[in-house]
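Page 47, continued from p. 46.
Same chain as before, 342 aa.
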Amino acid sequence: MTQLKPARILAIETSCDETACAIIENGRALLSSVVASQMEIHARYGGVFPEVASRQHVLSIIPVVQQALSQAHLTLNDIDAIAVTQGPGLAGSLIVGVNMAKGLSLALDKPLIAVNHLEGHIYSAWVHNAGDTVTPEPQFPLLALLVSGGHTELNLMTDHLTYQKLGSTLDDAAGEAFDKVARMLDLPFPGGPSIQKSAEEGDPNRFNFARAWLPDSWNFSFSGVKTSVLYEVQNLKKKSANIPTQDLAASFQQAVIDVLFKKTINAAREFGAKEILVAGGVSANRVLRQTFKSQTEFPVHIPPLSLCTDNAAMIASAGYFRYALGHESNLEMDVLATYPLS
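Result:
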């Protein structure tokens, strides 16, 4: 294996509604991680309000960077390169982070590294807190399941930064389906945690909601299960019956997890993966984590809860491997461009 050069990377993440900065050493040791959440601000809208998000990033970005440096007991002169989320994400939000990163890169004369947000989620599995016991790093070939609010896809990794996209969602992403079903059940935003909490007291077998297996394909589809829940709620309301929210939430959650788990395991077998990685916001779901961890055929890597949702530590880790392997970007990068994962 190629010996990678040591480096400290400062990373910025502003792809949606979290303003985040982190510093990582050698791709794995997390020296600091700061996240300024806008969740309470957007909860009143039932979802992320893009213009509000970008304005909040402008207010938060400098204090967040300063706090990350303070936590790590470092100055900007101790940083070897700047990494930033280039996309995908909300254009107005991305611009704030990219411009901050460009400014730091120019002022410090340090390399600037553009990182795909999804690639960042994958590399969250490499991160551990500095000083903690070092966990085994994922081994290639690796089957990576990305499950987030906007993306659900399977990628085969044969080496660092080398991806073969096997399949993705044809309609709703898993996280998007969680948000929409939560609204149907009058549960608060964000939908993922709300569905999980409600499902804890529910019966996952009460309703047999649709599962789109899509034979001979590694793609996903969650519009059917979402529609099944909608029809069930409408039928119950027509009958003037009480809405069994907890059972509906549990049955929906189980239907989504069944598909994610079985298709991932089957793909890992088909393509000869050594290990499985599960990342993205939906990987914080307790039942999903338990389901993957309870099977023993493959070693499974799932980031700690703090690294499942949007954060800059994952961008710093991915940025380190791009820097160390010579895949840096330049200062003229297009904020709407993104490294493909296939």
